Amino acid sequence: MKLKWIKRMSVGAAIAVLTAFFVVGCGSTEKQNNGSLSTDSSQDISEVSTKQEVPEKSEVPKKSADELKREKVEQYLADMTTEEKVAQLFVITPETITDVQTVTAAGNATRKALEKYPVGGMVYMKANLVSEDQTKKLLENTKTMYKEIADLPIFLTVDEEGGTVARIAGNDGFSIENVGSMNLIGESGDTDKAYEVGVTIGTYLSDLGFNVDFAPVADVLTNSENQIVAKRSFGSPPTNVCLAQADELVTNMVLAEMKGFEETGILSCVKHFPGHGCTIGDTHEGYAYTDKTREELQQEELVPFQEACANGVPFVMVAHISAPNVIGDNTPSSLSPVMITDILRNEWNYDGIVITDALNMGAIVQNYSSADAAVKALQAGADMLLMPENFQEAYQGVLDALENGTLTQEQIDCSVRRILNVKLSMQ
Q1: Which of 101, 127, 243, 398 is most buried per CB count within 10 Å?
Q2: Burial class (CB in 10 A: 0-12, 13-18, 19+), 21
Q3: What distance in Å separates the CA atoms of residue 250 and residue 276, rounded to the nearest whole number?
Q4: pLDDT tens by residue, 283-318
Q5: CB–CB of 376/333 below 8 Å?
Q6: H/E segment holding residue 111
Q7: CA distance linking residue 401 with residue 388, whole number of Å
Q8: Which helix (H) or strand (E) element contains residue 423?
Q9: Under 8 Å between Cβ of 174 and 207
Q10: What is the pLDDT of residue 280?
């Protein structure tokens, strides 16, 4: 404060005051040397004469990583058109939008298709995957084009479970060994082997350029006559699963495989909720159902899915299974608000991506148009629509439903937020 006062005085007066301070300071030192006074007074004068009052700065709290990501999601959402949002809801084969019979390269046809329909993801079949170098180039070019068009990552997906469902392992164009069927892994009772499956598959998928695998299978095989997931499931009742409880065994195996996928940069998708292991019939061909009640399903079939959700699995695939004693009618689970909204969302608080099983399967196409199936799945709470029989019809059907109020913008925004949340985590 005294320095500010000195600045306001004349030069001569200032010199006089400073001279006085100097004399006082020297005098106190001399007296201290004589043992009669301490130097406290000179320290006080020095401190007062040199210190200036600095106003305190109010600290702006730093935003957390989650807050920053939420802001980024909202910015992307605000910048998207309705058509772009609706396109994000679909995962389709590359042939669907390119009109090429079998896509093995991503060139001008792919670019034009993605400019018109910037879909959320692509799913690739064995015919698309000819060799390691070809697959890497196909996926890299698709990823690069999509980033330039949408400024986002694209989900590059595949069905690579191991065993009987593998698009790459065992493919003549690749020198990749199949990890074997999951029922054999389950019979071993060793979760380390399930983890190794996740690491092995995840490593070669990641190296090729994929980022999503529609695995692991979380079905508990409780119907011995069910051949749909017989070799694809980790477990069935204790008679052939090392005396372990089937639901506990499958849960532990699924979580271990998920961990392997996560460590290799692959997003996992548990399937086929609410459980294909107890069903009669094949949804690929037509109607498939379980007559179990909710309480019965909760004892075994639902357990691995609930635990996967609690452990943050990025995707849950909902099957076209009918469960009349849970839903109240024969509506497929993939189109059921009871299964998706009531159980997955409200009871389990799952906020990841819910994707339907392929919508070109018999259980759907025999009973619903592509537009109806797409709209009903979204009404039920699904976020993404896998392989509708007629993509253009399904896409337009969703836009029409928004126009006439069957679907709301809020519903679409909620789904796109979940998709963006995962995609921005990949960057």
Answers
A1: 398
A2: middle
A3: 13
A4: 666 678 999 999 999 999 999 999 999 999 999 999
A5: no
A6: helix 108-116
A7: 16
A8: helix 409-426
A9: no
A10: 73
